[in-house]
Amino acid sequence: GYRNLCRIATDQKMGTRDKGPPQPALGWNDLEGRAAGLFALTGGGEGALGAALDRGDFDGAAAVLDQLVGIFGPEHLAVELQVHLDEKEDRRNAALWGLARRFGVTPRQSASSP
User: CA-based Rg of the chain, rounded to a whole angstrom?
Assistant: First the structure.
């Protein structure tokens, strides 16, 4: 796991040397084949999964989770449910809970800063 994490971080850092528009920190291709030994958390509204739900794109959110499950496997992935007593977040969490059950992924509650 640590070796894969180091390779991902090194590749990402080396890729930032090019000048131009900012790119996402990591793309799907950066993770594929290097997820062994790693555990991923989907992220809140800032992550691709939560952002899709916030846009009302349930099919897009399911596709993101399907891709993450394909990369990490359901046993090395958790769907993050952030709890800050916010209605929008509560609706997102309900949808995330349903997706987690559908894909066999464990939901994890967090209360990190919004």
Answer: 15
For residues 80 and 110, what is the distance between their CA atoms, to the nearest angstrom?
7
Q: Which residue in 81, 77, 57 sits closest to 66, CA to CA?
A: 77
Cα separation values, 24 from 65, 75, 103, Å: 18, 25, 25
Q: What mean pLDDT, rounded, does the chain reach?
A: 86
pLDDT digits (tens, 9 = 90+) for 2-26: 888 888 887 777 765 555 555 556 7
Residue type, 24: P
49-53, 80-84, 92-96: the lowest-pLDDT one: 80-84
Alpha-carbon distance values, 52 to 30, 57, 92 (Å): 21, 5, 10
Half-sphere exposure of 5 (CA within 13 A, CB side): 6
109/111 Cα distance (integer angstroms)? 7
pTM above 0.90, yes or no: no
**E-only strand ranges, 1-114:** 40-41, 77-82, 106-110
